[in-house]
Design goal:
Layout lengths: L2 H4 L7 E7 L4 E9 L5 E2 L2 E4 L4 H21 L5 E8 L2 H4 L2 H12 L5 E2 L8 H7 L20 H20 L8 E5 L3 H12 L3 E5 L3 H10 L4 E2 L3 H5 L5 E4 L8 H6 L4 E2 L12 H7 L3 E2 L2 H4 L2 H11 L8 H9 L1 H15 L3 H20 L6
Parallel strand pairs: 3-5, 3-6, 4-5, 7-8, 7-10, 8-9, 10-11, 11-12
Antiparallel strand pairs: 1-2, 2-5
Helix pairs in contact: 2-16, 4-5, 6-7, 6-13, 6-14, 6-15, 13-14, 15-16
Pfam families: ELFV_dehydrog, ELFV_dehydrog_N
GO molecular function: nucleotide binding; oxidoreductase activity, acting on the CH-NH2 group of donors, NAD or NADP as acceptor
Organism: Actinospica acidithermotolerans
């Protein structure tokens, strides 16, 4: 990706490369927008094949966070960080604390949190060097695991999709295929089990599938996403990494609803239109998975007074049902895909509020 791309209209405000040789830290922080306030987004720890791949991912994720926070009604901009490496092998106290010092050097322009490969305990370690950390443990004044409300929000969006598609916000008896049963997927299984949906899951991690077999013996487990997609599904829920909806998947998809927790599900622009043309109801990913950021947003608003309230955050995450329904119905009325409708609403809010705020400076 050329440098010119970063200065194009709609590009990020800031890209920060972080390198600490003694600890082995190699990270990139991308601040897409501070139009609504400090940029908030998680830290992904992942073994990228190259620096270019890591950069492309962090830029996409940061942009998605800006839209997610705007659509969720938060006074927060969008940012993201990626740490290049295998968290099972490369993660250490020294590395996380070095990373925390880089986040601290931005003086609040970026607030970090958990993401793929990072956990509450990691955020507690980062916070030993940094005052701008959310997703910390309750014993350290934080909100704890944000995947709980992420899954709750996905479930609310799925109910809204059922309302729009089948006339009632009910998933009882519907076959839901979940690709990815990590932190979020596990909690989503719980919600769907309570509603007596028929659940089929897969994951590239054999240990994750073993967990499902042990805790939810009634849930069907298949060994690959290909096997999952070959089934006759009502709802497909991508809950792993991005790019789950590529041309081949979109062409062969049996599900009439796509609603999952993964970020950046569309492999390239235009696939949302193809989904709509095929009659598939696609709930925009950054709308669907906003429950977690609503939680850490509440924590961020009370970083220094310990006033986080899980019930308050859950009540706000429940509104994802109403927002999803509004976007689906507006999309139908305007004749444009739901993703385009969601983008418009997020962009309008960022544009209108940014006129009042201007650029957020450090300090």
């Amino acid at each position: 990706m050329s440098t010119d791309t970063h200065f194009a209209p709609g590009g990020p405000e800031q890209i920060v490369y972080c390198h600490d040789e003694p600890s082995g830290l190699r990270a990139i922080i991308a601040i897409h927008s501070t139009a609504l306030g400090p940029s908030l987004g998680g830290t992904r720890f992942y073994p990228y094949a190259s620096e270019a791949e890591a950069l492309a991912d962090v830029l996409n994720l940061a942009r998605g966070m800006a839209y997610k926070n705007a659509l969720a009604g938060l006074d927060l901009g969008g940012g993201k960080a990626v740490i290049i490496g295998d968290p099972a092998k490369d993660k250490s106290e020294a590395l996380l604390r070095a990373y925390g010092r880089f986040v601290q050097s931005l003086h609040g322009r970026y607030l970090t949190a958990c993401d793929v490969g990072t956990y509450v305990a990691d955020m507690d370690t980062v916070a030993r060097e940094c005052a701008y950390v959310t997703g910390r443990s309750p014993e350290n004044g934080g909100a704890g695991d944000s995947s709980i409300l992420t899954a709750f929000g996905v479930y609310q969006a799925m109910r809204a999709c059922a309302q729009e598609r089948w006339g009632a916000p009910v998933l009882t008896g519907r076959r839901v295929g979940i690709a990815g049963v990590g932190k979020v997927g596990r909690h989503l299984i719980g919600h769907l089990t309570e509603e007596r949906a028929e659940i089929v899951v897969t994951d590239v991690n054999a240990a994750a599938l073993d967990w499902v077999r042990a805790h939810h013996p009634d849930v069907r487990v298949v060994e690959s996403t290909e096997q999952l997609l070959a089934l006759d599904l009502d709802v497909y829920a991508p809950c792993a990494l991005g790019g789950a909806l590529d041309d081949a998947v979109v062409e062969s998809l049996s599900a009439s609803v796509v609603c999952g927790a993964a970020n950046n599900q569309l492999a390239h622009p235009g696939l949302d239109k193809i989904l709509a043309e095929r009659g598939v109801l696609y709930a925009p990913d950054y709308l669907v998975n906003a429950g977690g950021v609503i939680q850490v947003g509440d924590e961020a608003a009370h970083l220094h007074d310990g006033g986080f309230s899980f019930e308050r955050a859950k009540g706000r995450a429940a509104r994802i049902f109403d927002t999803t329904l509004e976007i689906l119905r507006r999309s139908k009325a305007d004749g444009v895909p739901p993703a385009a409708t969601a983008d418009r609403l997020a962009e309008e809010r960022m544009r209108d509020v940014s006129r009042l705020r201007g650029l957020l400076l450090p300090g």
